[in-house]
Request: fold
Amino acid sequence: MARRSDMPPDARACPAGQARVRYRRVTARGFFAVDAASLAVKLIGALLVRRTTEGTRLAGRIVETEAYLGVHDRASHACGGRRTPRNESMYGRPGTAYVYFTYGMHHCFNIVCGREGEPAAVLVRALEPVGWPWPDPGAVVSGRAQVPRPADGLVGAESARGGLTKLLSGPGKLCRAMGLDRSMDGVDLVRRGGALWLELPTQPCAPPRLARSPRVGLGACGVWAGRLLRWYEAENPSVSGVRRGGRPRTRGTARENG
Reply:
């Protein structure tokens, strides 16, 4: 479990329930120019913000991340220096979005970090909805962003009653609800005027209690399957992939999660 001192001051975001917290957009590329494990921790508590073509603001507070360390990481899409049209964005500048389609079902959103040309990224696994604009979870808006209907099996009974706790609790679910698909791959999160960016709180807050675990869904990558490269808020109900007792679910195969 991470100690409070492990949480960078600029990433100590207040819980979403503290409505008076103000956030400011990240405009410095240097924020992302760190190793993947460091960025995975820094991102906890930051807001991921998407503006649709209609101008609707969609925001979620990051509560779960996974680090993919680069060419030596057997779970990474760039393992062994692999470079394809699919993962080209991983070799871009820090602060670049890497969005891929997996299992023929859903998209996953990652943020490239470190140095340009050295592929490392952080998978954003779960968000806590912040100021979500639609009281009806069945509503659909343009700009490829939508809230799944309860019948899809992605929202669940709680959201069907009006709660949004689990709406963004998974990499595929958050991409679907926020309209993040391959068209967002390669987007620069630092560029002003873009449709996707990060925000950090402008005042210090008590850091959340963090927990660590192996990454989810790695079944064939040796010792890398057991590395503690997943961070999440220990008591946050929007976290995905955790069974009772804090143990992550392990389904799928290596290299499909980041």
The two ends are 22 Å apart (CA to CA). The chain has one domain: 4-233. The first helix runs from residue 36 to 43. Residues 1-13, 135-144, 147-162, 243-257 have pLDDT under 50 and may be disordered.
